[in-house]
Structure formats: structure tokens, C-alpha cells
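Re: the 117-residue chain
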Amino acid sequence: MPVCTIINCEILPAGSGRNRAKLRKDIQEYHIAYAIDFDDADIDTFIARRPDGLAFDKEEKLGVFLEYTRAMDTTEDWAERKEQEKNDRYSSLLGFINHLSHREKSGWKASQSNFTT
């Protein structure tokens, strides 16, 4: 049985200097490669985005974004709308991580699991 680690973190901690400049360059490259419109503010938002939690399976080389939501039964389609909102929020971030993994030939893959309680 693989061992998973669950943590809560950012992509890159604030004040990381040279690493932040390289990350910005990598994010720009990703957006250009996939013809995604962006500006400096979008990159800042991209860097600051973080899921509710992360799980890693080192054996399978898998990183999973964990998103948690409380049930809201205000409308019939609330669950579908919330699920789509969560998926949309992290789709470009997951794409970016998978892009870097492929470029660096690391073998890691990123995905997302949503939970509603």
C-alpha cells in the first residue's frame, strides 16, 4: 500500500527570490506554449493560488490537489456548479505542473480530487 502525505502549502513560499523569477519565466513559457492569454497580474494570481490540501504518492509519482466543500442545497444544480468551479480554478495550475513534469522528464503527474461534506 503506497504511503501518501497530506500537506497544506503554496507552490512557492513568499520571498523566494531567484526561484520566484524562474517560476515566473516557466509560467510565462507555459501560457505562451498553450496560447493562454495572461498578464503580470495573472501570473501573481497563478503563483498565489493554492488548493485546500495536497497528497503525494512518491511510489506512483502522483500529486493530488484536494478541494473540500460543504454542501449547499440552495439550488438543484449547486453540486454540479461547485464541482465545475473547483475544476476550473485549478485546471491551468495542474496543466502547468504536468507541463513542467513532462519537460523535465520527472515522471510526476498532478490531478485533483474534490470532496463535499
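The CA atoms of residues 27 and 43 lie 7 Å apart.
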